[in-house]
């Protein structure tokens, strides 16, 4: 029994739970925005600014935490990040409760709320890069795709379960779901404390070959950025499109959006657990993701306004489920310093979502008759960069083969 608890698979399950908890916490906060507006007196613009501030800090701090994880080890860095995130969430929730009870007004609490989101963003940025690099450290090299698809599936599962966690808490009171913002990071802190110390890689002792990026890495990073730009655009226009094109009321569109987002997260989880983890070649997962993404986008854009659009959305989600672990595994193949790499990948993901939200909303207001125009453009660029990455990778392999033959 003792040996099984120290088995790498047991540790990987704990890391997956940490990632799932982080995904759930993000969704719990998003589901409570209407109640925060009503009970705390915060304007929607103020909440949007606070979320954007935290996201910006999350984006810039990811590579730094990843680099620290390479140097001093995954466990101490992840523990530090989780501790800071927990303290920030405690401050954030305490301020919101004080506002709901009338002890604080928005003008007095806004600066403190902003500080709490800055602290949270700077510390929570450690979670994904450290977990991804740590999971790769614990696993076998040939199982990178399976490991990374498991982590991505865990994040999707957390996003799908987030609303289900919030619903029972609502029975206790309007703001009780916010308790999950404290409870979830506390649970992940306990889980992380029970993990073994991760590896560390010191820049001075590693060769340039071990720290080099795989061929076509820039194209893969561009694909990661554009993939989240695509998802961000789709998420931001989903509610307005349901209202304008399907004749739903504002409340109906909001409810339908919540249901669709939960269904999408669960669908991604099932695909990654049932299909992606069984693949052995990251390139296969990557190309399946690109082709499914293109097919789903074309079908979705051409049938939007009818029920057939659901099929396009499903194929789009399947594409993302294949794409993300595919390019993540390809990028990590030739690089020992996984923390730094996954930190930059986290930067691409967070930046992509931010760009997608901004572009999607702007394009929809500018031309509501073509709500998915930006999505079509970004997915077309994904196909272009995927082709470029494939060509560069093949040329590199041919060059290495010729060099070996000599």
Give me a quick take on this structure.
With 406 residues, the protein is an all-alpha fold.
Structure report:
The chain is mainly α and 406 residues long. It contains 16 helices and no strands. The chain has helices at residues 2-5, 8-31, 33-40, 44-72, 74-100, 106-124, 127-138, 144-170, 180-193, 208-211, 217-246, 250-274, 282-303, 309-332, 338-366, 373-405. Helix 5 (74-100) runs antiparallel to helix 6 (106-124), helix 8 (144-170) crosses helix 14 and helix 11 (217-246) packs antiparallel against helix 16 (373-405).
Layout of strands and helices, then pairs:
Layout: H1 2-5, H2 8-31, H3 33-40, H4 44-72, H5 74-100, H6 106-124, H7 127-138, H8 144-170, H9 180-193, H10 208-211, H11 217-246, H12 250-274, H13 282-303, H14 309-332, H15 338-366, H16 373-405
Helix pairs in contact: 2-7, 2-8, 2-9, 4-5, 4-6, 4-7, 4-15, 5-6, 5-7, 5-9, 7-8, 7-15, 8-12, 8-14, 11-12, 11-14, 11-15, 11-16, 12-14, 13-14, 13-16
Could you say which overall geometry the principal axes of the C-alpha atoms support? globular
Characterize the main sheet: none
Report how far the terminal alpha carbons are from each other: 53 Å
CATH topology grouping of the largest domain: Growth Hormone, Chain: A
Q: Specify the number of helices.
A: 16
CATH architecture of the largest domain: Up-down Bundle
Task: Give the key terms.
406 residues; mainly alpha; Growth Hormone, Chain: A; 16 helices; globular; MFS_dom; transmembrane
